[in-house]
Amino acid sequence: MLKISLPRLRRDLTALARFGSNPGPGVTRPAWSPAHEEARAWLLVQMKEAGLEPSVDPAGNTFGRLGDGEPVVLTGSHIDSVPEGGTLDGALGVLAALECLRTIREAGAPLTRALAVVAWSDEEGRYGSLFGSRAFAGQLDAAKIPGMRAPDGERLVEAMARAGFNALEAPRAAADPRGVAAYLELHIEQGPHLEAKGIPIGVVEGIVGIRRNRIVFQGEPDHAGTTPMARRKDAFLAAAEYALAARQHVVRRGSGRSVTNFGVVEVKPGVTNIVPARAALLQEMRELDGRILGRLDRECAALARRIARRRGLGVAIERISRNEPARMHPEVQGAIEAAAADLRLRTLRMPSGAGHDAQNLARITKAGMIFIPSKGGRSHRPDEASDWRAIERGANVLLHTLLKLVS
Ligand SMILES: [Zn+2]
Question: Given this model, what pLDDT does residue 406 score?
Fold first, then answer.
């Protein structure tokens, strides 16, 4: 049975980790930065040496192709990182894909379809969330490009120009869906489930949808010394009651995997001797089932209004963003499970609570994702890690899934 070479994959992962390496472990390799562009140049050389045909599209997505004609089966991930991130998030999916194509080419395995490795640009969203795959899927809003900025204020247009790209041309990366047969991505889980259950391979069912709302409770800014407790209209206490009640509601009435978070809380006027007149919460909810997500969203809004009314306060609910869940294709999920069975590896079907490029690819083709266990569930931090054995297993499942998709 065909297998990838772990020493070669390990060598590539170690080599890529040098670009943007921190003094300690981990990497800082944001999209379009000098470290990222050096990594891209290195990747293009590796693709060429592996006998692939390299190319870069107007959105900065980097491809290495094996075989001719369309439609092509795409596999990859990203080589950018968050600040002080780990060496596997994204890099594993790109370099394991490269190793799979190298293995297939060397074995002379017959291909009925072309295969290509891809590294999507700015997956981590320094300038725009999932930028490269969004452009490829034809979902990039050209009018927004001039206004896209990094948290430090730098404009995307300037960052891309520095790297030799014209940002305004990025929408031209949009692919004809008929040219793509399937998309497959290997990624670390970035959570604790596979490790806790002792299962080596996760088969991603879909990527969760996300709702973000701003909930603002409006009370009265009374004197905190002279106003009797019973007469106060304390916006903070309403917000606090709501946060606890909403959490309980999502846990009890969600799918069992639904999650919610209150990541930002603002209390005004924000001084010790005035009763809080205004409390704003930023709430996020994530869930794989779009109907459950929509219902939880409506029920939480009703809950906020009920709490405000009972306390004699006003409440305003503002929608910040809504992302619908992206289902991975049943055929690709089946191919991953069959490949894992051939390799005698147990699998677990699971949602992805984090966003991935596969959610954009799912709009134009049959998309699928393979997860491997993350040590301690840690990710987006320098000590992110997976066992080499786990990496080898994941890459071999990627290899045999690809073989099923091209045969
Ligand atoms: Zn990633």
Answer: 92
